[in-house]
Automatic annotation (TrEMBL):
This is Ribosomal RNA small subunit methyltransferase I. The gene is rsmI. It comes from Shewanella algidipiscicola. GO terms for biological process: methylation. It is an enzyme of class 2 (transferase). PANTHER family: RIBOSOMAL RNA SMALL SUBUNIT METHYLTRANSFERASE I. It catalyses: cytidine(1402) in 16S rRNA + S-adenosyl-L-methionine = 2'-O-methylcytidine(1402) in 16S rRNA + S-adenosyl-L-homocysteine + H(+). Residues 4-203 form the Tetrapyrrole methylase domain. Its EC number is 2.1.1.198.
């Protein structure tokens, strides 16, 4: 039926595409791709010959109106990104909100997402988590962001580029402490899939010493802030105590 379909694609292992994803990509009139050349390889691998159009951060708002035109002509459209779930640190937000505003259906398909896949095998608490996307590229911005998150009790999930992994781990040690439990998931679903798990300072050392750990695609996860594990005294109580003691002679 006439709708915008949000279709996740594999994050490495081509076997992770779903039967329904292939069906939808074959049936729609148009596939909006982040990069038509990149997705062209994936689509031809599955024998999908549907017409493609580019939708990236720079043309998304204009392209959205054009896609709404297609929907109004009765043509179904699919959105894919280079890898994983569209809109998750990828383009699509403006398109989806504009298509909904224009009154058309948006139909999501479930599928690969690096953050959720990495979290599921990390061993970190998964009952509550905060997906934070990419950390800022500049040190000041990165430290500010991490300081803001330092007392968040939820598991923190970051996307990371191999060029910045050492800098990001250094900032994590500085802002969250060298003992903060970190899990680094690299090349998930691919040949060199690796999970490193341990205190932040230890992971930093391992990654610094081994250039192989600075390659490929990375999800970085941090255990949430633990409220005075050792003493069982809530932070609020400690702060009140500090305030009171300042008033004492
Ligand atoms: N939309 C994608 C998703 O659903 O996961 C994420 C796109 S974002 C531009 C790319 C980032 O996702 C990479 O820099 C990396 O942090 C993470 N990523 C993608 N594939 C991965 C993989 N196979 N293993 C680990 N991290 C991956």
């Amino acid at each position: 039926s006439v709708a915008l379909y949000i279709v996740p694609t594999p994050i490495g292992n081509l076997g992770d595409i779903s039967t329904r994803a292939i069906e939808v990509l074959n049936q729609v009139s148009l596939i909006a791709c982040e990069d038509t050349r990149h997705s062209g390889k994936l689509l031809s691998h599955f024998g999908i010959e549907t017409r493609k159009t580019a939708l990236h951060d720079h043309n998304e708002r204009d392209r959205a109106q054009w896609i709404i035109q297609k929907l109004s002509n009765g043509e179904a459209v699919a959105l894919i990104s280079d890898a994983g779930t569209p809109l998750i640190s990828d383009p699509g937000y403006h398109l989806v909100s504009q298509v909904r505003e224009a009154g058309y259906n948006v139909i999501p398909l479930p599928g690969p997402c690096a953050a959720i896949t990495a979290l599921s095998a990390s061993g970190l608490p998964s009952d509550r988590f905060s997906f934070e996307g990419f950390l800022p590229a500049k040190e000041k911005g990165r430290l500010d962001k991490l300081t803001e998150l330092a007392e968040d009790p939820r598991t923190l999930i970051f996307y990371e580029s191999p060029h910045r992994i050492v800098h990001s781990l250094e900032s994590i040690v500085a802002a969250l402490g060298e003992d903060r439990h970190v899990v680094m998931a690299r090349e998930v679903t691919k040949t060199f899939e690796t999970f490193l798990s341990g205190p932040a300072a230890e992971i930093l050392q391992t990654v610094k010493q081994d250039p192989n750990q600075q390659k490929g695609e990375i999800v970085l996860m941090c255990h949430g802030h633990r409220i005075n594990d050792d003493e069982g005294i809530p932070t609020v109580a400690i702060n009140t105590l500090k305030l009171l003691s300042e008033e004492l002679p």
